[in-house]
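F.,

This is the one I mentioned.
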């Protein structure tokens, strides 16, 4: 019997390494559940603030042996270092500036949207309240991955 959570996944795809920078445990749980039912195989890594996100991305300290993520999902409202500060750091780092970043936040403030794109965010998505809507956000992230980041190879 085919597992319904994997029926649309490409047969030969490697897992996508995803870094989720999110301090809200409920949002982390919703994200994990939504990606488990998503189209692509993934290894989801979670950090709780911007300082940890940068340490993970730079492979520092406890993150020395982690693999570089393929994509970052970044909340803007985090302790110690917020998402906009993380984006500014990534933008100024030649090694990290090429990692696609999707801002996934509850903020709908125009200033946050403008600042995120000014610091080279690849996409800006507002977190929905319900799980079904959250699954739709994950589908948008997957489409972004397959259609924009990992362009189909020419035959």
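My design for it:
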């Amino acid at each position: 019997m085919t597992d319904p959570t994997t029926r649309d996944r490409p047969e030969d795809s490697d897992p996508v390494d995803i870094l989720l920078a999110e301090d809200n445990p409920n949002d982390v749980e919703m994200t994990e559940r939504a990606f488990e039912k998503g189209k692509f195989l993934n290894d989801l890594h979670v950090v709780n603030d911007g300082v940890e996100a940068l340490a993970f991305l730079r492979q520092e300290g406890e993150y020395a042996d982690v693999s570089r993520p393929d994509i970052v999902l970044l909340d803007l409202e985090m302790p110690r270092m917020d998402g906009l500060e993380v984006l500014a750091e990534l933008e100024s780092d030649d090694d990290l500036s090429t990692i696609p970043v999707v801002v996934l936040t509850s903020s709908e403030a125009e200033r946050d949207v403008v600042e995120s794109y000014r610091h080279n965010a690849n996409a800006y998505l507002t977190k929905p309240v319900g799980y079904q809507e959250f699954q739709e956000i994950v589908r948008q992230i997957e489409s972004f991955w397959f259609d924009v980041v990992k362009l189909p190879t020419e035959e």
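The radius of gyration is 15 Å.

Talk soon.
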